[in-house]
């Protein structure tokens, strides 16, 4: 159906009621027919469900956060309009107009919901009927203890699920102003357009905060030399053989590692535009920036050799290892783990081919770098994720200063539920602070220090301590299990209160 021809349920019912004078209290009841009545329509008698059908929720941005927000609000009975500028307005990183397109890694990171805060966030989203997690599970790829997905079928499925809902429509076009009326969620992500960024800056009165996010390259699997490389997850992690062999490993001896570091440091890099500064998020540093911080930095980061045995040469322990993770279900593409880069394309191909096993590699995509925009949420948002100066607007996703696909989708889930509840005339407190979602939203809406605010992944450092547990490394396993047990109980209680 062409853009703009889809008519929401609210518009149809408005016209019907105006012409027929139908009783609004009798309309949206399951299995009942509207009843005629003689008096004019009165807004004072509108029931909450009717209010939901006559007040749309507008969501700007169809990424992870926007898609999840739309799904949650729609399932609460609210009409939703997703405003997505792609494909009419393109970005350098996106390739399609699909919702929830993955542009960097294809990993949702750890799926361990007992010992890892990210895995706990997965659990909470699944318990809340999250669309992003459901589609990630549907298109899951072997990745050891991580949750990696086949990126194209994943985004296609998210798009199909959302557009199949009768109370969701997608308007393709750019939003460049902050509206003064209506219910809005802005979930524009790290690639917020210049026009909208300027509008946000004008409204908040603060300079736009920015750092640079880099994309890792993707290699064609059949161009990797398997006489040198081998398949193994770190510490053989995973319950199945596919999980235990989810990563492809390229070993380096000391001389090869030192030569690689020299090549990284000497390579041509992307220059920044005038007035831009390179303030990186530590969880997504370009490899050459890591190398500049010390020659051993990479060997203790993405190139650490621990938990691996070279199947082609088991007697010799590698000095460093480059890992590649499967990027699609066919196993034809692998992305180089942790190898985000701002090297120029020609330099990338030259440097990466010095890695043993990648001498003849062909690249499906080379790395890149882009500006990432986020607001100073602790000073700008209330505990309902609303912009203090314009309470009709909520923010969600990476633009709030959370980092990662999972965290972005989680903030979308929460914003969608909070906005829908407000439209329905219901009171909904934000997520309990002892949950993963609550810890994260508390951090960005007041827990963090506004003066030094930087993007943050979910982690147990955001959680309130559990009393009576030992500290230190030895007590970490019990402490993390206590965090996750407490969080699950609180999260289930929060969800139950809404049913």
Question: Can you describe what's shown?
Answer:
- This protein is α+β, with helices and mostly antiparallel strands and about 500 residues long.
- It folds into three domains: about 10-55, no CATH class; about 55-210 and about 375-495, FAD/NAD(P)-binding domain (3-Layer(bba) Sandwich); about 215-370, Elongation Factor Tu (Ef-tu), domain 3 (Beta Barrel), CATH 2.40.30.
- It contains 15 helices and 17 strands.
- It has helices spanning about 10-20, 50-55, 65-75, 115-125, 130-140, 150-165, 195-205, 240-245, 255-265, 285-290, 345-350, 375-380, 405-425, 435-445, 475-495; strands at about 55-60, 80-85, 105-110, 140, 145-150, 170, 185, 210-215, 220, 230, 245-250, 320-325, 335, 365, 370-375, 385, 390-395.
- It has a six-stranded mixed β-sheet with strand order 6-2-1-7-17-16, with helices on one face. A six-stranded antiparallel β-sheet has the order 10-11-12-13-9-14. Strands 3-5-4 form a three-stranded antiparallel β-sheet.
- A hairpin with a 4-residue loop joins strand 4 (about 140) and strand 5.
- Helix 3 runs parallel beside helix 13, helix 4 runs parallel beside helix 13 and helix 4 runs parallel beside helix 15 (about 475-495).
- It is globular.
């Amino acid at each position: 159906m062409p853009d703009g021809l889809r008519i929401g349920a609210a518009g149809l019912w408005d016209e019907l009621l105006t012409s027929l004078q139908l009783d609004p209290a009798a309309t949206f009841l399951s299995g009942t027919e509207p009843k005629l009545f003689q008096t004019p329509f009165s807004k004072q008698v509108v029931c909450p469900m009717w209010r939901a059908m006559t007040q749309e929720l507008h969501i700007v941005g169809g990424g992870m956060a926007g898609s999840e927000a739309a799904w949650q609000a729609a399932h609460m009975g609210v009409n939703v309009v997703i405003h997505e500028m792609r494909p009419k307005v393109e970005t350098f990183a996106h390739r399609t107009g699909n919702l929830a397109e993955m542009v960097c890694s294809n990993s949702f990171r750890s799926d361990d919901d007992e010992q890892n805060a990210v895995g706990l966030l997965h659990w909470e989203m699944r318990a809340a009927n999250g669309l992003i997690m459901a589609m990630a599970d549907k298109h899951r790829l072997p990745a050891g203890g991580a949750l990696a997905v086949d990126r194209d079928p994943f985004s296609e499925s998210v798009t199909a699920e959302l557009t199949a809902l009768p109370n969701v429509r997608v308007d393709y076009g750019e939003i460049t102003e902050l509206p003064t009326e209506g219910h809005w969620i802005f979930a524009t992500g790290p690639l917020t357009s210049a026009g909208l960024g300027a509008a946000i800056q004008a409204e908040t009165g603060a300079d736009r905060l920015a750092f640079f996010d880099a994309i890792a390259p993707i290699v064609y699997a059949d161009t990797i030399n398997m006489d040198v490389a081998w398949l193994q997850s770190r510490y053989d992690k995973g319950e199945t053989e596919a999980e235990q062999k989810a990563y492809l490993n390229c070993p380096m001896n000391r001389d090869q590692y030192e030569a690689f570091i020299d090549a990284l440091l000497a390579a041509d890099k992307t220059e920044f535009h005038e007035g831009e500064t390179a303030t990186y998020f530590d969880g997504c540093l370009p490899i050459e920036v890591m190398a500049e911080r010390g020659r051993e930095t990479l060997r203790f980061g993405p190139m650490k050799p621990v938990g691996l045995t070279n199947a082609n040469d088991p007697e010799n322990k590698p000095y460093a290892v480059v890992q590649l993770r499967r990027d699609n279900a066919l196993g034809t593409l692998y992305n180089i783990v942790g190898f985000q880069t701002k090297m120029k394309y020609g330099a990338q191909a030259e440097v990466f081919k010095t890695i043993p096993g990648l001498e003849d590699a062909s690249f499906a995509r080379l790395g890149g770098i882009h500006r990432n925009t986020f607001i100073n949420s602790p000073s700008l948002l209330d505990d309902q994720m609303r912009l203090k100066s314009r309470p009709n607007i909520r923010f969600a996703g990476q633009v709030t200063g959370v980092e990662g696909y999972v965290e972005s989708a989680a903030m979308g889930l929460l914003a969608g539920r909070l906005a829908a509840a407000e439209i329905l005339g219901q009171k909904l407190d934000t997520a309990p602070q002892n949950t993963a979602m609550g810890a994260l939203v508390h951090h960005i809406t007041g827990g963090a220090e506004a003066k030094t605010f930087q993007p943050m992944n979910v982690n147990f450092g955001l959680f309130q301590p559990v009393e009576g547990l030992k500290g230190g490394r030895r007590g970490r396993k019990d402490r993390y299990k206590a965090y996750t047990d407490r969080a699950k109980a609180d999260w289930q209680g929060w969800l139950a209160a809404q049913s």
